[in-house]
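Feature request disguised as a bug: please show the residue count (199) next to CAND6/7 N-terminal domain-containing protein in the output. Example input:
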Amino acid sequence: MTREAWSHVLEQLQDGDIRCTLHSDLVKRVFTFDQLQPSARQFTTSFSVAETNQFTLVFANCMPNLPYLQDKEKKVLMIVIPLQVVANLAQVVIDETGPFGENSYTWKQVFLLVDIVCCCAVLFPIVWSIKNLREAAKTDGKAAYQWTSVVAAEAATLAFYVFTGYNLRPKVHNPYFAIDDEEEEAASEALKLEDEFEL
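Example output, currently without the count:
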């Protein structure tokens, strides 16, 4: 479509005359996804132009009712993610300050349990989204492309977190926590001074 026609299409969208760019009479479709064959590795098409002008190529998706997250999943994530952040921050504070009372071990276990429950709760919206996408893929063949791309993105995210977690796991001989003799002597002197001061 020409640039002038594109501005009219945007006006139609803004005024609510159309819900998708492809519904406008000003748009000339080059191809749609139903023309793609799942087994084909490439797609070639040609389009004849009758007039000379500057044209705009637009990619549009007009599939209704397929958001990645429904309202129910968004509400769960809005509660779970901040709770998980707070639990992790509290766990870091407890780890860094050391045991400061009888209940410090209990609190550490509670925050670990909250973290695990939150991780499981994050998985529920993902499972719900996959379920919705599967149902949509059954009724509409075009949704199958979207479903597979979502699964691929989630699998890549999972692989990243597994890789990061494995490489940053606690180790017995961690080079980042190595303390040389001078630092160890200074720390022991500081502890002796604290013990003498308390007496």
